[in-house]
Specification:
about 120 residues; alpha+beta; five-stranded antiparallel sheet; about 20% strand; elongated
C-alpha cells in the first residue's frame, strides 16, 4: 500500500492494506510534504536494506533511484509554489539575528545569579 505519512511528511510503501509505520518497505521524500508521490524526486527514495540482496551495511534504508508514475499513464501537473506564507514573517539577516541573540544573552545575564552560567555556544 502506498500512503502519505503525516508524521514524517513523506510517502511510504508497505505490505498489506493498511498504513503501518512499523513495516515500511520504501519511503520517498525529504519531509517537504510533496502533494503526490509523483512529485518526489527520483533520488529521494529509499528501500529497506534487508530487501537488497547482499547488502551488509548498517543503515535501515538505502537510497534507490525510483520514479512514480500513474498506472494509466496520465500526467499530473505540479502546482505552482504557494505564496500564502510569503511575507508572513520577516526574515532576518545574519547581522540582525546576531543583534537579537545579543539582546537575549544580555537579558539572561542580567537576571542570572552568580552561580549560573550561560552557554553561549
Amino acid at each position: 500500500m502506498l500512503w502519505y505519512s503525516g508524521t514524517f511528511k513523506d510517502w511510504d510503501l508497505n505490505n498489506g492494506t493498511k498504513p503501518n509505520e512499523d513495516d515500511i518497505l520504501v519511503y520517498g521524500g525529504q519531509g517537504d510534504s510533496e502533494l503526490r508521490p509523483q512529485f518526489v524526486l527520483a533520488n529521494q527514495w529509499h528501500v529497506a536494506s534487508d530487501m537488497s540482496k547482499g547488502y551488509t551495511g548498517q543503515e535501515d534504508y538505502i537510497p534507490v533511484e525510483l520514479t512514480v508514475k500513474c498506472a494509466d499513464g496520465s500526467e499530473i501537473a505540479k502546482p505552482p509554489p504557494s505564496t500564502q506564507n510569503v511575507g508572513a514573517r520577516p526574515l532576518l539577516t545574519d547581522a540582525e539575528m546576531e543583534r537579537q541573540y545579543a539582546v537575549v544573552y544580555k537579558r539572561a545575564a542580567k537576571h542570572a545569579s552568580q552561580d549560573e552560567e550561560i552557554n553561549l555556544v
